[in-house]
Amino acid sequence: MDLRRFITFKTVVEEGSFVRASQKLCCTQSTVTFQIQQLEQELSLQLFEKIGRRMCLTNAGKNLLAHVHELSRVMDSIRLTAQQDNEPSGDLRIATGETLLAYKMPQVLQRFKQRAPKVRLSLQSLNCYIIRDALLSDRVDLGVFYRVGNDDALAMQSYGEQELVLVASPQLEDIDLTRPNQHIPLSFIINEPQCIFRQLFESTLRHRRITMENTIELWSIESIKQCVAGNLGISYLPRFTVERELQTGILKELTFSETPLSITALCAHHAGKVVSPAMKIFMECMQECLSGQTLDNAVKNPGLPLAASL
């Protein structure tokens, strides 16, 4: 069997089309089409079917893809063994949550580039659920995100509990969100619905039977903070994102619970993935730069309660 055909198959799935796969592989679209046809003939399987204008995987294609991911990992292992004594190079794909990228990662990225200058770093800011799925499907090598449940297929390294805080403008009169059965005539300013700390806040309000006037969705944490400081509403964010504003009086903290709720920051990779020298260096940089926080090495499913894992 020609390994190039399996690589082409995997690239078509990852890129979503034959055209983009040909661009990624630096070949013509006809070459990609020919290699897929040859693979289908060799295996006596139909791997793709056309639905509308899209090429979608058949069930046989989906079954093959899992084996191709395993084959890819074996090839990576062989390549890494051959390059063990050399300076790390190649690609490293990292996905991270927006708040972690903006407030925790700059120092990590700077140190990594100093230690591994030949590595081509691909960095994406994604939702935590999408990061988990990307790790499971081998679309990224490392994910830096907040814990979204237990998963046996991921090897995880914890970087401590990140405390959440309810913030408002100093102009706002104090309100009591610990008292149940009430309507708060204020806007809740936050980002998209799958945001972990938004989900935690909203589930707590539902439990207390508290309603808000409306929700304002913004994608940027800085925009959220500016709107809250302008007394347009309240927000619920990781404390490290608003520490400076709380210290300088731009924002004030409101009581939300007797014990502050928290979320867990993680660095994770697929448990079956060979840890490359670049991945190892990046995780070392994470530990060096975030050494002031609690570190639990290679934690897999530590059994956190649901509230902490959201």
List the helices and strands and how they pair.
Blueprint: H1 3-15, H2 18-25, H3 29-43, E1 48-51, E2 54-57, H4 59-82, E3 90-96, H5 98-103, H6 105-115, E4 119-125, H7 128-136, E5 142-146, E6 154-168, E7 182-190, H8 196-208, E8 210-217, H9 221-229, E9 235-238, H10 239-248, E10 252-254, E11 262-270, H11 277-289, E12 296-299, H12 306-309
Parallel strand pairs: 3-4, 3-5, 7-8
Antiparallel strand pairs: 1-2, 5-11, 6-9, 6-10, 6-11, 6-12
Short description:
Helices cover 44% and strands 25% of the residues.
Description of the structure:
With 310 residues, the protein is α/β, with parallel strands linked by helices. 44% of the residues lie in helices and 25% in strands. It has twelve helices and twelve strands. It has helices at 3-15, 18-25, 29-43, 59-82, 98-103, 105-115, 128-136, 196-208, 221-229, 239-248, 277-289, 306-309; strands at residues 48-51, 54-57, 90-96, 119-125, 142-146, 154-168, 182-190, 210-217, 235-238, 252-254, 262-270, 296-299. The strands form three sheets. Strands 3, 4, 5, 6, 9, 10, 11 and 12 form an eight-stranded mixed sheet that branches. Strands 1-2 form a two-stranded antiparallel ribbon. The longest helix is centred in the N-terminal third of the chain and has 24 residues, at 59-82. 29% of the residues are buried. Mean pLDDT is 85; it is low at 293-310.
